[in-house]
Write a structure and sequence with these properties.
Layout: H1 2-24, H2 28-37, H3 41-44, H4 64-73, H5 88-100
Helix pairs in contact: 2-5
Length: about 120
């Protein structure tokens, strides 16, 4: 029984790793264009920093599978983006773009913020 659980967990981990690898193989440049084209910036800001209506997406976005599932099935304030509207390739590119956004400086390293 334990070996089935271990095999199942290993298969799940391998699937997640492959999904992350395919997302990493995507184009951040194309993702930035898709982020603007599909209107993501209107709620999430041009760099995924978040806004009045949309949460922060970057830096350090949530796992790709979580983001993909939410984007495809959300029934909240954000409309769902089905594959006919936002292709899997575009979504992977958007994720690559979000991953490429650098983390801001530590507030403690900014002299004007530290008296």
């Amino acid at each position: 029984m334990k070996s089935r659980s271990v095999i199942g967990l290993a298969a799940l981990a391998a699937g997640l790793a492959l999904a992350q690898a395919s997302a990493l193989a995507a184009s951040a440049e194309k993702g930035k264009a898709a982020f603007v084209q599909h209107g993501c910036w209107q709620c999430h800001g041009y760099e995924g920093q978040g806004g009045v209506t949309g949460p922060r997406l970057a830096p350090n976005p949530i796992p790709f599978d979580t983001l993909s599932n939410f984007v495809r099935t959300t029934s909240r304030q954000m409309p769902p983006f089905r594959k006919e509207i936002l292709s899997d390739e575009d979504l992977a590119d958007i994720y690559a773009y979000l991953q490429s956004i650098p983390k801001g400086p530590d507030p403690n390293s900014i002299p004007l913020l530290n008296p």
